[in-house]
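Sample A.
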Amino acid sequence: MSQLPAFTLRVPENTESDGQEPSPDNEGALHSSFCELIEEQSSLVAGAIEMELQERSREPSALLPPLDPMATAGLEPKQGEQHPGYATTLRILANMPSHTIGRSRGAIISQYYNRTARLRRRSSRPSLQQLSHTARPSLRQYDLESDPTNATLADKQSLLAKELLSLPPAQRSQVLLEVPLSLEEKRSLRRQLSQRRSTPGLRVHSSEPTSPCAWCQDCIVLGCRTLWYRFLALIHAAQPWHYALKQISGRFGSSVLSYFLFLKTLLLFNIISFLLLLVFVVALQAAYPPAVASPRPFTGLELLTGAGSFTHSLLYYGYYSNTTLNDPSASSPSGSTSPSRATQLPYNMPLAYMFTIGANFFATCILLMYSMYHSFLKSYRVGSSTGVLAIKIFSAWDFKVVQRHSVKLQSENICTQLKELLAEQRLRSCPLSLPQRLRHITVLLLAWLLALGTVLGCVVAVYYFSELMHMVQQKQGAAAGSVWLQEGVLLALPFVVSLLNTLMPHFYNLLAAWEKQDSPEAEVYVAICRNLLLKMVVLGLLCYQWLSRRLVCSAKECWETCVGQDLYRFVVMDFIFTLLDTGFGELLWRLILEKKLKSKRRPEFDIAQNVLELIYGQTLTWLGVLFAPLLPAVQVVKLLLLFYIKKTSLMQNCQSPSKPWQASHMSTVFITLLFFPSFLGAAIFVSYTIWWEKPSETCGPFRGLQTIYQTPKVWVELLEESNPNIAWFGWIPQYLVENTVFLFFLTGMVLAVIYFNIQVLRGQRQIICLLEEQIANEGEDKKFLIQRIHCIYDDKVHCA
């Protein structure tokens, strides 16, 4: 039976071209190029049209390839009759590059054989133009062994393996990755390559014998590469909670995963802060402890109150000395200078304390800004997510996963992501009508009025209760009552504040159920705003009271230590109420649903409340780092326990979200809220304390100074007195810190960088839109080409 001649459009593979390609904007050049292409294809098809018409009358319909009805709906005639050029169109479509994958393996192998041969010849010998006519190879030497167009599929595979074997290992791996063959065929090629390398008789004849030095060099390189890959795999596996985060993402989606990623980020910040304070302040003060009179015995209540034996310890500000540690001029208690310490360097503890706190806030600010920038690029630069669904379906599977449990975990993860994408598209396709929008806006206004009213009521209640507790503490101090009762009263205010912070989010959840937000994402954002407003206003009130009562507290001890103890109690009490809310809010509610109500539903993980608990606890840590240098260590222990407790409760007590939604921007929102108002508010509070508040007179590293900020000035004056040659050093704090010009310049540079990044993101979005439009235009070009081929076929039929 006759067959149509196969025709292909030969395009050179190299990207360099001598002439200039027609621009996509030049429609005339594109039209002329399409016309030339059509004429070329029609000249090849014209000789086989008659044979095709004869074959169609004899050829059974079962031999025709199956046709996709969606792809050919626009090509079929309206009356249900088959178009005369139907078979020709199928053959043209079958010869398109996108339809050859998986069917024309011989053509693909031949193409990559030619490419591999060119790579080998390009790297092994000079170009043909540089050789003389006598040295050029003859075309008569080409036969079936070297011409892959006339060979069978097995011969082509053998030729390709032989050419791959002659390439360097890097190019060989790259070519194997680029070959559009199945994994089984690539494995077959790799097996052939390994057999040829291992069998001496099957080696390439052109390869030279390997010397012992070259063999040792190859072994050393291969061993180093293997060790490097194992080291990279070890680093990847050593990431904290790598498997646990994958498990959470597979079962509960990206929305719940964003909470644990945020917790991991906070843990990193606190570890960095703790290491800075430990190395430069805490460890050195522990090496040279000050004299402490009559330390109190440990009773166990200090773990809750932070008072008692913890008062005069490394945990609080009042323990640190205001002297130069290891000073050579310092005398021993007997009055003589210690010769063993005279050879060591002195260490100014007040200066180190102040600059370490400043470096801690500066490093945290840099890390926060980098995290915001990285998260913003990751979540917002892609633009619309209209094509993500197809990418997830066809390109999301990782074929390197071979273990049964990992395969199950990855399939769950992909299914959850598909649910989130479909839910997002479903929300976009169901807009509200005008009456529904008006009713929804009215409900939102009433809910926000109730939320703001509850915030105001909570702030007033905290204010009056704190005043009452302050009066009770003064009366107990004057009466000299029981120590347990005095320290127990200290927990009353943290208890009330933590109770409000735990109960009010549940009230806001009732408001959210009444509001019926359009999407779960909007519901989470609204809950975060309300909880954040409540917590930040209460913290602002507490900061004002701590600074206003410093004179009353400093009558008996350091007011900085009193503030540090209050912040420690708030951190501990917040952790206790978080555990209680996890137990009663998730475990108890699950038992009630399963045992009493006989329901299969479980409580859902409240993202807004849990995230705001993390932000609230981190804000307390940043507020207290000046008054309690070891408070970041307490926060590290708290976050570690929270991760395992929350993960266990999530796996055992909670269900996946009933309305799946994609949390692509949640991490960016969490980091932004952590930066403002949490970090900026704590930085303002600490900066105000350093610049304006007077330190305690009897304790702490800054005793005897009017403000903490005077510490570098005093140190510079001492340096100028000891060595007048470094008098120029005094202009650094004067012109870089006190002068506002430098601060304005630094702020302008930061704003310029932010503006530049915003413009880059806008440009990336415009480029993405242009590329999407170009892809759509290429699809229209293919439709236009198929229509022109039909027209040419109709003209040929009429002329015949």
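Sample B.
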Amino acid sequence: MRLRDLIRKVRACKTAAEERAVIAKESAMIRTAIKEEQAHYRHRNVAKLLFIHMLGYPTHFGQLECMKLTASPHFPEKRIGYLGMMLLLTEDADVLMLSTNALKNDLNSDNKFVAGLSLCAIGNLATADMSRDLAPEVDKHLKSPLAYLRKKACLAMGRCLSKCPELVEDFVDRVVSLLKDKSHGVLITVVQLMTQVLVIDTRNAIEEGLSPEEETPCRTAFLRLVPTLVKMLRNLQTSGYFADHDVGGISDPFLQVQLLTLLRMLGSSNEQATEEMNDVLAQVASNTDSAKNAGNAILYECVQTIMAIPCEDGLRVLAVNILGRFLLNRDNNIRYVALNTLSRCIAEQKQHELNSGVGESTNNAMSALQRHRTTVVDCLKDPDVSIRQRALELIYHLVNESNVESLTAELLNYLVLCPTEHRCDICARILKVVDRYSPSDQWRVDTLITTLTIAGREASRNVQSATVVYISRASADIHAFAVHKLCKALRDDDGSQHGLLSVGVWCIGEYGELLMQPYQYVPADGDQQPITFQAMEPMEIVKAVEQLTKRHACPDFVKQRVLTAYVKLSQRLSHDPMASERLQKLLQKDQTSRSLELQLRSCEYNALLHATKGQRLPRLNQPKASTDADLFGVTAESSVGEGVSEGVVAAAKEALARMPVVDVKILQKRLSADEFANGDDTIPVRRTVASAPAPSSGGDLLDLFGGEETVSNGPTSAPAAGPSDLDLLSDIFAAPAAPISAAPVVNPMDLFGAPPVVSQTMPAPSNPMELFGAPPSTTMPASPPFDMFGGSTAPAPSATVSQDLFVTNSMLGTKNVVLKVKVSFTSAGQKVEHLATCSGFPPGKY
């Protein structure tokens, strides 16, 4: 079967299965022909194998047939053999070594086409060993009188030098002589060979530990050819029309591109070479027509060369303007390479200015690019995502102090439309821009809040943390602005922006009291209409935070921050009873949560709040605490119901016991032991209640408390040594006093030892000014007023006497009130005096 018949059969197949059947059948027939050594059909079989290889089917079984065809004396068979060898074999194939002798024989052939075939095979498949063996033969063709062989020899030599870099220095002189060739094809291949030699030489220098910019013998030889290369490029710009080399009205664009590439490599580290090529680069950039694709290719390579060499600033501005024109082109490929080149060039220039310490000039690539800022921003709206990404990279390099607000607004607009996987990187870059070029604190906070509002779900923890830091370090006015704006953003959000929720909840918990005051500000974008945030009620603030946890998508880490915000708000909104009560219920809600962290926070926060409330004295309308109540006024029975754990109570007891402060409770415990001191005249008093009331004598002061009392003097000696009542701190740090053989006092709040009123229950006092713990006052019968300080008229039996004291603290806020009370009276002919000191009043009130 001939090749055309196989192609016809394959095209006639309607399904892939039919095609596979045809190929399998034909491959089997080719294998049979190879096995039977059918030499007259060998070239036909290899041609069919090439077609089968193009379709993607395996053809490795025909590699040896290609080797046999290359050794054929007939040119058609040799041509098919070399073509099959270059397509079906790779440089890793073992059978390739068998072709070395055939290649050497063909290189010495008198037929230039046969020698050309061998040079093409060497240029495509030569290995390191083949290059060493065949390099001398290729070198002979570099001096061939035929341009056809010289250009092919240049390409083959490039392959040999890339495989054997140690041969580079031996062929430098040969390359220099070929640059004067008159043939157009030879010039292109020689320039390509010089470029490849420079690349290999630079790689060798790096491997030897030398700097890439350090001149080597090869580079030095090529630098002497820069004037020649510049002259060739200028001739191509000024030469007339040549039909053989003209492409779209551009004279030999391929050679111009190759020359510009070689000049870029030579001038990148040599100022003298750069000065020689400045004029021709300006000529190429100015005279090349950009209406055709060939002209755009030359201009792009010219821009690459200008940006790579240390040329003048005016030339760089010209290059940036060329790339700016590329951005207006309809072709996305041209726009892409323009954006990519601008980003790379601006980044390199910034790095150079940073290393050299030179400030930004008014006539450089950066300032020139600012003129094309609008065009770059318009690329963010391009439908092609690759164009948008390159424009985004370029905008980051364009930002400075003068345009940070406008470009950041464009970045935020693009953040709304960009793919989700790019939002994290854009948020991080916006943070860097804001951190470096922010004009004011309010603008910085506003930008970061807007970023979290748009991409709070994708923003990294660094963006959230930076927002919190900037808010906390700002002034009080920024605090009010941030908390109002975040509260509004939380109410408008659907709960998906987790970063916004975290920052917003923290800010409300930290500065929630500022929401109860209205706030007004003028935007910085030129709009003079002020924006006003209305004041919120405490319950509205609590409901705004509570609403976040009711959303189904609210994550646990946001709920944890909400619990912390509840605790902070319970102190900042403590003046509102409804809000405080609601916050307490919300804190207790998660005590049975499935999340261990939520449950732990809820229990700890509740215990903390109850411990803080336990330090307050009981109110008047509460029942009297039992005798075994602790310093918090909490008994063992009531502590369970109120939610205060025994550990919290014990810790609070220990903390308060170590504090060197005298409290009213301590005075109650001292008085319960009935220890009163009155200097050297102090005597213990024992009280007994008579079984039946006796007629009032009218002069006994004890009748003030509605009972009759018998005072027994006892021994006249002084009592055992013990802590003095004047030193109320002694019972905290000293050992406990010895028990006194006195009857226990039923009412611990009675400083003067009066028996309790049996007819009613005395509530525990909560007002520290009620020093005596007396029962509620009753209306006295009409009688002359009783003067405690010198009066002689005694009250009627069972009557209640109350004395109102008005005390003014002249050092309010500096020192607390401390009262010393002394009462003296005569009972049964004996003088009795009581002295007591009361302290522990709430600070700041008395």
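B remarks: The chain is about 55% helix and 5% strand. The first helix runs from residue 3 to 12.
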